[in-house]
Amino acid sequence: MTDVDKARQLFREAGLAFPTIPEELATQLQEQGRWLFSTRPLEMSPYHLQHYVHELEAAEVRDYAVLAHSGHGVNSYAIQYYLVQGSLRMLLHLGWGGVYSDAKADAAKILDCFLMADKIVDGCQKAGELLDGQPLTVVGSDFYGSYWLAPAESRRNGEHDSAERERIRPRETLTQVLGWLTRFRARHTSSIQ
Predict the structure, then answer these.
(1) Are 149 and 56 in contact (CB under 8 A)?
(2) Are 193 and 159 within 8 A, CB to CB?
(3) In this predicted structure, what is the pLDDT of residue 165?
(4) Is 163 a residue whose pLDDT tops 80?
(5) Rounded (10°) angle between helices 103-127 and 170-192
């Protein structure tokens, strides 16, 4: 059994959906601990979302996938699905597993978010050259807020203030990205024809 198979089985047994891990990354996915699968060495727990956001902002990062469940305390637990591939930088940090959470409701929310994320992965793969190497950045967290940046956009002070981001849920952010990606592909496909 490969490590990606182990991850799928773990998620299935927990009643969770499994997100798209592109084939070229799935073959590199390695179990690095309990509920921790990654294609790269990890210096920091995936729970520390901001570390991974800052990493993307600070330097060119090679393609990778991380799939984990981590947290602390009695109710601060989340599924982390981080995918950096080609022009896509998607970091999802979705609440699941706390003492006071509703496991079925959280699993349904994760399923919904993963279905949209799968469409974004597919859309970015199809848009490939149209994105011209410019990253599409998606950050979705139940704890730290959510936002997205179209290619060539960057976060500037005040542009995405934390109070505004905290009101935006991952599902809403993913919906906005899907809408943008659909319009982007339609606009660029029609201009090619």
Answers:
(1) no
(2) no
(3) 52
(4) no
(5) 20
